[in-house]
What does this fold into?
Amino acid sequence: MKVLVGSQNPVKVSATKSAFKKVFPTKKITIIPLNVDSQVPSQPLSENQAFKGARRRALNALKVHPNADFSVGLEGTIQKYPLGVLEGGMVVIIDKLKKISIGSSPRFPLSKTVLHQIKKGQELGEIIDCLTNQSNTKKKSGAYGFFTNNIITRRKAYQQGIISALVPWIKKQLY
It folds into this structure.
């Protein structure tokens, strides 16, 4: 089974591999990470923007390898709701028959301190890098890891989002 990932971020690639191995344990799975454009801002600020970016990542990856079995697009987002602002990841999966499904990772509330920095134009990954005195945290445990003390890492959260998006293939008879 050939699975494309519309990103070369090691967290997104690893989450995709892990999710597909859990859902299709008897299949030989080949993951192909691709550097493709999401065509949305680097810090999407709505679910619509994030789903659009995830869809574009999946579609753009399929343009490179049109015979793949699946293509996965992941995009993080910050979304304002009536009771607060949540961070999470949106997932779009497209199969070789062009069937599309969506999913999302668990979400968590962002602090006022972080939101203030985002409103000033900083990307969440950069903010977490500053708070942790590390670099490229979005390619490691990410904001999830920082805010949950690594109880949930970015990889684990995205894995859950990918598995959620795979539900139509898990329960084919209902979809």
